[in-house]
Amino acid sequence: MNRQKPVDFRNSLNLANKVGVKILRRRLKLSDEQFRSVVHKSGSSISAIAKEAASLK
Question: N or C, which end of the chain is more exposed by having fewer CB within 10 Å?
Fold first, then answer.
């Protein structure tokens, strides 16, 4: 049987992946609350998250 490979997109953040969230949050130098608000506003696109985080500073 052939199994389907999980599809991972390089330009979007999987919010269920705790390690990926932690790495991105630290790279952007945001607190947990700031990161949550940025993701809530911009969605799961990494470029949109980075753009929104830059506007906070």
Answer: N
Q: What angle do CA 5, 10, 11 make, to 5 degrees?
A: 135
d(CA 20, CA 9): 12
Dig out the tokens for 37 from the structure: 């608000």
- With a cut of 80, say whether residue 55 has pLDDT above it: yes
Of 18, 43, 22, 40, nearest in space to 31 by CA: 22
Residues 6+ apart with CB under 8 A from 46: 11, 12, 13, 24
Which value, to the nearest 10 degrees, does the dihedral of the CA atoms of residues 6, 27, 39, 42 take? -100
